[in-house]
């Protein structure tokens, strides 16, 4: 978002940046695969223990 402000994009453009998917997995490396919602919940639950 800071980069969008520095480029001089308008407030509407900032909303577009916020609405975009932050990361898209390209499928080449399983270590870079985003967590599923279930995996994220399991990790949070394990951390709380």
UniProtKB/TrEMBL annotation:
It comes from the Bacteria. This is Uncharacterized protein. It comes from Thioalkalivibrio paradoxus ARh 1.
